[in-house]
UniProtKB/TrEMBL annotation:
<keyword id="KW-0963">Cytoplasm</keyword>
<dbReference type="InterPro" id="IPR020598">
    <property type="entry name" value="rRNA_Ade_methylase_Trfase_N"/>
</dbReference>
<keyword id="KW-0694">RNA-binding</keyword>
<dbReference type="GO" id="GO:0003723">
    <property type="term" value="F:RNA binding"/>
</dbReference>
<dbReference type="InterPro" id="IPR029063">
    <property type="entry name" value="SAM-dependent_MTases_sf"/>
</dbReference>
<feature type="binding site">
    <location>
        <position position="61"/>
    </location>
    <ligand>
        <name>S-adenosyl-L-methionine</name>
    </ligand>
</feature>
<feature type="domain" description="Ribosomal RNA adenine methylase transferase N-terminal">
    <location>
        <begin position="20"/>
        <end position="189"/>
    </location>
</feature>
<dbReference type="GO" id="GO:0052908">
    <property type="term" value="F:16S rRNA (adenine(1518)-N(6)/adenine(1519)-N(6))-dimethyltransferase activity"/>
</dbReference>
<dbReference type="InterPro" id="IPR011530">
    <property type="entry name" value="rRNA_adenine_dimethylase"/>
</dbReference>
<keyword id="KW-0698">rRNA processing</keyword>
<dbReference type="InterPro" id="IPR020596">
    <property type="entry name" value="rRNA_Ade_Mease_Trfase_CS"/>
</dbReference>
<dbReference type="GO" id="GO:0005829">
    <property type="term" value="C:cytosol"/>
</dbReference>
<protein>
    <recommendedName>
        <fullName>Ribosomal RNA small subunit methyltransferase A</fullName>
        <ecNumber>2.1.1.182</ecNumber>
    </recommendedName>
</protein>
<keyword id="KW-0489">Methyltransferase</keyword>
<comment type="similarity">
    <text>Belongs to the class I-like SAM-binding methyltransferase superfamily. rRNA adenine N(6)-methyltransferase family. RsmA subfamily.</text>
</comment>
<feature type="binding site">
    <location>
        <position position="14"/>
    </location>
    <ligand>
        <name>S-adenosyl-L-methionine</name>
    </ligand>
</feature>
<feature type="binding site">
    <location>
        <position position="40"/>
    </location>
    <ligand>
        <name>S-adenosyl-L-methionine</name>
    </ligand>
</feature>
Length: 264
């Protein structure tokens, strides 16, 4: 009996896509020194390639209907550990060591919670290579312009994101409505932005700056209780125009601006 894909688990499996799989292996540069964490192995299309190269592969899968298929394919491989659990409920640090690389075609319905969880585990995770909806990858990786959002800054605060390549929807079974993209996040080990501005402070200002997409910075920061005159002076000191919009600020602009706010 063949496997019946479940929509509720975001199951769009890569079909016999040697080219896509090969490209994933190339850009994620998995070596024999790497411990790889795979979220959602599905029927193991990517897992098989990861096992050919990596030192160790830990795969976390929620769907018990896939357990038998995965165990049959990989259980005799000593490099492989299967964790049958919800990734969001899994204590990642008890399965992988420092320096782990994530390589995965993740379930899209929990893209943000997964990225947050991986960032929270940055003590053991160095690099994240994931497949996400194309539009989400464009938003996370945008360097300037209207695709930037709180999500972009939430990733930039912890690491460097890069859009790697697009994958057409036809590469999956069943074929989803949207195209996908493969992207990376290399997590900063030096906490370069966190050391300058605490997380809660950083997000207070970033959220305010993006609170109304159509408004400029002066009007959005006014929601924090500052007078327009105070805001003009702060923006002026940061060398940012009062008519500028949040989407055109880099993370460095935000850090400079928030430092001025907090020292007033
Ligand atoms: N890696 C496979 C591939 O590329 O063919 C499957 C990718 S499919 C997009 C997502 C996988 O994540 C499915 O196997 C699904 O069952 C699994 N999954 C969904 N929700 C999950 C969760 N909360 N924790 C762990 N795995 C989950």
């Amino acid at each position: 009996m063949s496997f019946k894909h479940k929509k509720k688990f975001g199951q769009n499996f890569l079909t016999d896509q040697k080219e896509v799989l090969q490209k994933i292996m190339e850009v994620s540069n998995v070596t024999s020194d790497d411990t790889v964490l795979e979220i959602g192995p599905g029927e193991g299309a990517l897992t098989a390639l990861l096992l050919e190269t990596a030192k160790k592969v830990v795969a976390i899968e929620i769907d018990t209907d896939l357990e038998k298929i995965l165990r049959k394919k990989f259980d005799n491989n000593p490099k492989y550990t299967l964790v049958m659990n919800d990734v969001l409920e899994t204590d990642i640090q008890s399965f992988v060591e420092k320096g782990t690389k994530v390589v995965a075609n993740i379930p899209y319905y929990i893209t943000s919670p997964i990225i947050n969880k991986l960032i929270e585990n940055r003590e053991v995770i160095d690099e994240i290579y994931i497949m996400v909806q194309k539009e989400v990858a464009e938003r996370i990786c945008a360097k300037k312009g209207k695709e930037r959002s709180v999500l972009t800054l939430a990733v930039e605060y912890f690491g460097a994101a890069e859009y790697l390549f697009t994958i057409p929807k036809e590469a999956f079974t069943p074929i989803p409505k949207v195209d996908s993209a493969f992207m990376s996040i290399k997590l900063y080990k030096d906490n370069r932005y966190k050391n300058q501005i605490k997380e809660e402070i950083f997000f207070k200002y970033v959220k305010a700056a993006f609170s109304s997409k159509r408004k400029n910075l002066l009007n959005n920061f006014a929601t924090l209780g500052y007078s327009k005159d105070e805001l003009r002076s702060i923006l002026n000191e940061a060398k940012i125009s009062e008519t500028e919009r949040a989407e055109n600020l880099s993370i460095e602009d935000f850090i400079r601006l928030i430092t001025i706010f907090e020292n007033k």
